[in-house]
Structures are given as C-alpha cells and as structure tokens.
DNA sequence: TTTCGGATTATGGATTTCCGTAAAATACTG
DNA sequence: CAGTATTTTACGGAAATCCATAATCCGAAA
C-alpha cells in the first residue's frame, strides 16, 4: 500500500472523506492542498528532499477565487506532475463524466485510476487504491468505463476547436476567417471554413451551427 | 437550534460533512436521502406522523442513474416541500453559482439560506444554521451575495426560454413557429419570433443567435 | 363609438449561412 | 518527372437569418 500521499482538492468535504478513507488503510503520511499550485510545489519539494510522494489524488476542476494561480485545473497539474515524476501513481477524482476528457487523461497523462465522484465514490476510491497499489493495472469507475472503449476517431483538431470557440463567442464566420488570416492559421478560406463546419455538424449530428455549439458545449469540448 | 433535520444529497462525501457539522451543534435527530423522491416521501411521512422536520438541507443537482425518479432536481424538491410544509426552513447547499437560479430560489421558493459549496463551505454552513435557526433572517454565501442585488429587470418570460431551448436543440426559427402554431402558443408569427430574438440578443449583448445560445447556456438559463 | 397605444403580424430587401461543384495548389508515388 | 490523390480555395445559387418599416388587431380609456 502507499506510504506517502498528496491530495489536491479544493472542497473540504471531499478532503475530509479522502482522509478518512486513507486512515482506513492505515496511511498516515498524507498532505492536502486546496490549490494546484501548492500541490505542485509540495511534490517538487518532496523530490528534492528525497522523500517523494508515491500517490497523487487530484480533483480536476478547481474553483477560481481571489488568488492568482498558475495551474488552474487538475488536468494541467496531472500533466505537469507526470512529467516531473514519471513513476508516481495518480488517481483522478472528479465528477467529470465527459468521455473525451477521461480518455485523454488515461492516454495523454497516463493516470492510473479515474474515480467518479457520486453516490458510491468512497467505495470505488478504496477499490482503486487496492488495485493500483498492488499492480500496474488501471482502475476506472464502472459508470464511465465506456469512455475508454469509445473509438477514438476524433478527427477533431485544434483548429476545429478554435473555430467552435470563436463561434460560441459570437464571432461570425467571415470574422473568424479574417482573424485566421491575420494570425496565419493554415486554412483560412471561406470554403475551407465551411467545409470544416460541415464536417463538424456531420460528426456531432447537429442540425445547424447553433445546435453544433450547443452540443459541443454540453460535451465539454469548448 | 433545530431539532429534526433532513438532508437531500447524493454524494456521500457531502453527507458525511453535513452530518459531522450537525453533530457539532448537538443535533442528533437527522436523516439523509440520496434521491429527491426519498426525501420528499420522508418529509410527507413525518408530517402525517405529526413529527415534522424543521429543517431541510438540500443539494440542487442530483446525478442520474439507473433508477427512475419523479423529482430530478433539488429545485423541484424545494418547491414541492415549500408547498407541502410552508413553515419548514430550507438551506440550499450547492456548487451552483448562477445568479438567475439562486435569485429564483429565494424569490420563488423562499429558501432561507444558500450555502455555496467550496473551499470554506462547512464554516458557512455553520453560519447559516446559526442565523436561520435564531431568526427569519436569510443567509447567503458571500461569494454569490451579488446575485440578490442584481436588478431583476428580467423581462424574459417562459416563451423566451422555450425559444432558446428549441434553438439550442437545433430547431430552426421556422420550425419553432410551426411548433408554436400547432400547440397554440400565443405569438407565433415570423416577425414576433424575430422581434423576441432581437430583444434577447439586445438584452444579453449577443452578436448573433449562436452567441445568444452560448451565453444563456453559460448562465444556466437553459 | 371613437381614439389611442401596445402588441402582433406582414412584407421586402440586405446580409449571412448553407451546400454543391469545380478549379487550383500541394503532397505522395512510382 | 508524370500522374494520382488529397487538401485548399473559388464561385454561385438556395436557404435561412437579420433588420427596418408598415399594416393590422385589440383592449382600455375618453
């Protein structure tokens, strides 16, 4: 089982529950941070002191408040920590149930477990701890397990997302083209734009642009 | 202080924290429900048994799962409970920070307190308990207190919201008109529709329809 | 009843978006 | 290099939306 654990979580309710869970496993050496920045600093410090953490349990979304932060989301924190300390085990602990985001966590950041906050999350957290401490097996909450099986035929690239964001921001197609031209984004013709939009609408089964933006907003893509 | 409390909350982490808080106030007679339906039944039962609850602490959003439910959200639960037992005190306990929704809770459902889940929510929950148990004063978490001061010049009516919902659902303006005509919603001409949309865009400072839907989605109106 | 003000509806033209086709540019292959 | 495939760009007509103006309806007040 793990010896030294750090928790990145802004809500005290979840902090409390995680601490309780860790205690049940007789893990006493743990710390928590309410901001991603703090968590990252602690992890770096621990490495320097030659007493690294062997587990990070991190939330994904953190509330913004008065404080200025460098790392604003758990996704970023996880990414940075994975680079800094490749062998640390990571559990993402979140209410996020968007397939695309979960998939990317496993594939890009190589998290070891994803526990979905919900009616039985403490039980699942315990399962995750058991599994990933004993082996290199992954754990994912059953409610969202389908996220990984989903065929990753996401041909949606950065430009697509950029377009969607501009659209949802009230920019007209013509204006977006102008912006792309003046910032030398590769395809910047009216027709390329329209073709992309057409593909996107096809992909997301959207009837029109309004619908498309509505759908992608719901899916957490923009 | 309160004698008999019921909590409607699906996440066990929050349940745990609330129970802990109540214990700190020496409140021992409390129950919790993970589904709105259950909470409502318990409240009704308690009235019939002549031992009604004097406080409801309710979350607003509940995860959907396999189970079929009649009451799907805390907003509905609160509304129904307020009708059933007008003198019960109600605390909404949620991460919801959309002004429109909070305002409506105070004005339409006459909740007694709104506690925003966050980095210091337990402390705020305690404050809320103190204030509303001793008087008829309202409590609202400072981070969202501005929601109440907002000028309520919401001339946005049901039809507007219906239109926005249809739009975000991919329905074209013409199609919406057809729907309105066949279900005899009052204004159902092309121009009335366009005028309404124009007003909405004006009100929300939206550049176009896509922008409008995007904004109202973000505000939690649709 | 008449008049007024508002709300709804009608109309038409400007603008934007939609969608298919085709030309041009670029990449890839043998 | 020639030939093919893929991507990007160009163009044009159809459809939808945007916007201003004018006509109509309808209830309230004089």
From TrEMBL, chains A, B:
The protein here is known as DNA-binding NarL/FixJ family response regulator
Q: Which residues form a coiled coil?
A: none
Query: What PROSITE patterns does its record include?
Result: RESPONSE_REGULATORY
Q: Which UniProt keywords apply?
A: DNA-binding, Phosphoprotein
Q: Does the keyword DNA-binding apply?
A: yes
Write out the GO MF terms: DNA binding
Q: Where does the record place the modification 4-aspartylphosphate?
A: 59
Q: Does Phosphoprotein count among this protein's keywords?
A: yes
Native species: Flavobacterium cutihirudinis
Any idea where the Response regulatory domain is?
4-132
Question: Which domain of life does the protein's organism represent?
Answer: Bacteria
């Amino acid at each position: 089982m793990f010896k030294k654990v750090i928790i990145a979580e802004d809500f005290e309710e979840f902090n409390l529950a995680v601490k309780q869970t860790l205690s049940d496993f007789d893990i006493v050496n743990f710390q928590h941070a309410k901001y991603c920045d703090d968590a990252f600093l602690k992890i770096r410090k621990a490495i320097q002191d030659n007493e690294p953490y062997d587990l990070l349990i991190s939330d994904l979304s953190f509330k913004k408040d008065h404080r200025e932060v460098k790392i604003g989301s758990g996704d970023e924190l996880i990414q940075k920590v994975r680079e800094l300390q490749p062998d640390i085990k990571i559990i993402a602990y979140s209410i996020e149930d968007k397939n695309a985001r979960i998939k990317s966590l496993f594939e890009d950041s190589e998290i070891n477990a994803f526990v979905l906050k919900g009616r039985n999350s403490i039980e699942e957290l315990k399962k995750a701890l058991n599994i990933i401490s004993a082996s290199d097996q992954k754990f994912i909450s059953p409610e969202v397990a389908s996220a990984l099986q989903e065929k990753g035929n996401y041909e949606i690239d950065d430009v697509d997302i950029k377009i969607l964001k501009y659209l949802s921001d009230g920019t007209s197609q013509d204006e977006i083209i102008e912006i792309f031209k003046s910032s030398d984004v590769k395809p910047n013709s009216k027709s390329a734009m329209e073709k992309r939009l057409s593909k996107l609408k096809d992909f997301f089964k959207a009837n029109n642009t309004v619908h498309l933006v509505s759908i992608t907003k719901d899916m957490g893509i923009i």
